[in-house]
Write a structure and sequence with these properties.
- The structure holds 2 protein chains of 2 kinds.
- Chain A is mainly α.
- Chain A has one domain: Non-ribosomal Peptide Synthetase Peptidyl Carrier Protein, Chain A.
- In chain A, helix 1 packs across helix 2 and helix 1 packs across helix 4.
- By secondary structure, chain B is α+β, with helices and mostly antiparallel strands.
- Chain B is globular, with a radius of gyration of 22 Å.
- In chain B, helix 4 packs antiparallel against helix 5 and helix 9 packs across helix 10.
- Chain B has 12 helices and 16 strands.
């Protein structure tokens, strides 16, 4: 997982779930955030896709079970360069 | 184990049963139950059939985590006939377990990959998760107007559970029913609409038919160019949607002299203790077709035919502006609608400018999954 990717995604998640950045860790998952329902999951995916200029396949969306997994997936798709 | 989406087959039935059980145990609404058979009861796929349902499952190591269905049907979009999917019954384990909140997105993306030209219809209002997801994905959307006409005001006032929600309202409605003031008020308002806008036409007659024949094909060919988006309503398709052996549907052919002006399919819905309608006899105008200029007499004759059958209330959802006006001319009032049409960009782009084209799209209760309950 690229730290820069994680930092950006942490910012997106903090805005979306209206939490402090420091409260979002790589392990943060829907189970810990009551507001993280299916609609917010989509909003998170769409925001990350827009930020990084990519599109997740349905199979990849299932892998997004924590912020760290999402950051790792972004790193895998865009490489370490961005 | 990753979640994969696969067509529903016989081997998955026990897993679907378990999925339904988990949703119920988790407090999901009662209607959130996916069919426990891979062969749809409604519109199964058959050889040469152009209207059919298909079921899909999101599976995690053989465990069902989500479901959806797509009804494929031919539509005329800007004059071109295309196969388009209606996305329905998307249920996700995420409803009861947030660990699966990704499943709703996964289902929708999978459906769009299989059939990019999809639409959604109904959905119960903008506060529900599916419309909220579609809005987030910037689907074009609008509310399909809802109309009603009260035939028996006394029964309506005493039994319309959806309005009798407080002690004061119940008292007022009972007062209106027993004093006759409600009867007078409702009849006067509806009659004023009919008289001031006059939609019944001399020489127009209505007949009940057993099935759709060549006359329906001819009418379809006449009507198709008048609608920006409309499901193919030729005789073959209509006889699949409204099977001649199904006596719950009343098929009405409306004629002026020897010319077929249009048709309508109506049905009666009667349940004990329905949360909205109580035990009222509700006549529903499920579907209809005519050239837009013939909509007023077609709606007027259809409403009159339903009233003659003794229903207490008539309801209809219509998207086309001319059909909406026709209902108003026939004495109907607009009510709050929770019936949403939504389409992704790829489909909405064929209907530009969407804000204008949506007024000439023809969507009714029959275009979603509204016919399922009349099996």
């Amino acid at each position: 997982m690229n730290e820069a990717h994680f930092a950006k995604i942490r910012g997106i998640a903090a805005d979306l779930f209206q939490m402090g950045r420091e409260q979002i860790t790589a392990e943060t998952s829907p189970a810990q955030i009551p507001a993280w329902d299916s609609v917010q999951h989509l909003n998170l995916i769409l925001s990350v896709e827009q930020e990084f200029g990519l599109q997740f396949e349905p199979e990849e969306i299932d892998q997004v079970r924590s912020i760290g997994r999402l950051a790792a997936l972004v790193t895998q798709k865009v490489g370490n360069s961005r | 184990m990753p979640i994969v989406v696969r067509p529903y087959s016989e081997e998955h039935v026990p897993a679907v049963r378990d999925f339904n059980r988990r949703l119920r145990a988790g407090g999901a609404p009662r209607e959130f139950s996916f069919p426990e058979s891979p062969v749809p009861r409604w519109l199964p796929r058959g050889e040469g059939r152009k209207v059919y349902n298909e079921f899909f499952l999101a599976l995690e190591d053989g465990v069902v985590r989500g479901t959806y269905a797509v009804k494929t049907q031919e539509f005329s979009v800007a004059g071109e006939v295309r196969s388009i999917g209606f996305y329905h019954h998307p249920y996700s384990e995420g409803i009861v377990d947030r660990a699966y909140s990704a499943v709703g997105v996964l289902l929708l993306r999978d459906a769009l990959r299989r059939q990019p030209e999809l639409f959604a219809l109904g959905m119960g209002g903008y506060d529900r998760p599916l419309p909220q997801m579609l809005m987030a994905m910037k689907w074009a959307h609008f509310l399909v107007p809802f109309y009603f006409q009260v035939i028996h005001p006394g029964r309506f006032l005493r039994r319309m559970q959806g309005l009798r929600t407080t002690a004061f309202r119940r008292w007022m409605m009972d007062l209106g029913a027993f004093s006759g003031a409600g009867w007078l008020g409702i009849h006067a308002a509806q009659a004023w609409r009919r008289l001031s806008r006059g939609s019944r036409r001399r020489g127009v007659c209505v007949e009940s038919v057993a099935s759709f024949g060549d006359w329906a094909d001819e009418l379809w060919r006449e009507c198709q160019p008048h609608y920006s988006m409309v499901a193919v309503r030729d005789a073959g398709t209509l006889n699949v949607l409204f099977p001649p052996q199904n006596a719950k549907f009343l098929r009405l052919r409306i004629r002026h002299g020897s010319r077929t002006m249009g048709w309508a399919v109506v049905a009666e819905r009667r349940e004990e203790n329905h949360p909205q309608y109580g035990d009222l006899r509700v006549g529903v105008i499920l579907d209809c077709l005519a050239r837009p200029e013939d909509a007023p007499p077609v709606m007027a004759e259809t409403a009159a035919a339903l009233a003659a059958r003794g229903v207490d209330l008539i309801t209809s959802n219509q998207s086309h502006a001319r059909w909406c006006r026709a209902l108003e001319q026939a004495g109907f009032f607009a009510g709050p609608s929770n019936f949403i049409f939504a389409a992704p960009k790829i489909l909405a782009d064929r209907l530009q400018p969407f804000d204008q084209k949506k007024l000439t799209m023809h969507f009714t209760r029959a275009d979603g999954d509204g016919l399922y309950q009349y099996l």
